[in-house]
Amino acid sequence: MYFNPLQMSLAGNAFERAEKLAGRYFRLSTEAMKEHHYDIKTLAYLDKHEVDDRVFAQLCKYHYTKSDEPELKEGMHFYRICLQDNRILDAVERAGSFIRLTPLMLYIAAHELVHVIRFDRDRIDFNASREEKQQEEEKVDGITRDMLRSVANPDLNLVLECFSNRYKIGDFCQ
To answer: With 30 labelled, which of 1, 59, 117, 121 sits at a CA distance of 20 to 30 A?
Structure first.
């Protein structure tokens, strides 16, 4: 199952909204938010190693350098948020009318953006041990919930109840 055009638009809107919420939560200006380099891909556009049937989204970190720009000796990095359309749509379908795509996507987007910001701020090493990453997931889940309190509504509250940190929202790859 892949997102259809309407669902892709909903996902894009969720990330726009989550970016504003994250900026407000972390007290980052629009310009400062742009310093966190990331892109978003849906299942149809993912490479094989970016697909994970256990999570809603996987965060990958990539490094690149431009050979024609010697001043960038170390290169740059960016994160790719790899949405697992099939897992997301399956969760919505299995929940019947209880879980709606829009609030679920907002939660996923907010959660992944919190990761991006925390990794960029060196709050945790992207290559941390499995145990450290599990602790980080719990911290990120708490931050995400705090961040979303300002826009809470019954549909979002239901998502927060159903998809607590007991359910795996995302994972990391490199």
So the answer is: 59
53: containing domain: 5-173
- Cα 100 to chain centroid distance, Å, stands at 18
41, two tokens: 């891909």
Q: What is the mean pLDDT of each run of 10 residues along the chain (174 residues)?
A: 97 98 96 95 97 95 76 78 97 90 97 97 91 93 96 94 64 58
Phi, psi of 73 (to 5 degrees): -55, -45
8 Å CB contact between 103 and 158: yes
Per DSSP, the three-state class of 83 is strand
Axis crossing angle, helix 130-148 with helix 5-25, rounded to the nearest 10:
90
Q: What secondary structure does DSSP assign to 14-81, as a single string? A: HHHHHHHHHHHHTT--HHHHHTS-EEEE-GGG--GGG--TT-SEEEEEEEE--TT-TT-TT-EEEEEE
Please give the model's pTM, rounded to 2 decimal places. 0.90
Split into its structural domains, the chain has a count of 1
17 CA to centre of own chain: 12
- Separation of alpha carbons 26 and 98, rounded Å: 31
Residue 83 neighbours by CB distance under 10 Å: 28
